[in-house]
Amino acid sequence: MATTVFDINGNPRVVDYGPYDEDADRREAVLEDWMQRLMERLVMPWYMPALQRVEREVRCARTGWVRRGEDTGETAGSE
After folding, report:
1. CB pairs under 8 A, 24+ apart, for 69-77?
2. Which of 4, 35, 54, 79 has the fewest C-beta atoms lying within 10 Å of its C-beta?
């Protein structure tokens, strides 16, 4: 299967990718599943708590609440 691609300068070039590969869809699905599991096991355990902490800080800043400890509900200036 030949197709025309363009380089960074806009120059066309014909590339032959060979015949259609029936296993390509299966390999793509396996790769997507592997990437999903990688995200769940490696990235999400540290990313989600950090994201929740940032969301909490933004919410506190918008409402004027100052966090002391873990969501105590104290306002700025309260003793």
Report:
1. none
2. 79
**Tokens 């869809």 sit on residue:** 25
Spatial CA neighbour of 56 closest among 45, 69, 42:
69
pLDDT tens digits, one per residue of 15-64:
877 777 778 888 888 889 999 888 888 878 878 888 888 888 888 888 87
Q: What is the Cα–Cα distance from 69 to 79, expressed in whole angstroms?
A: 14
Cα separation, 2 vs 46, whole angstroms: 44
- Give the C-alpha distances (Å, rounded to integers) separating 25 from 29, 68, 77: 6, 52, 60
CA gyration radius, the chain: 25
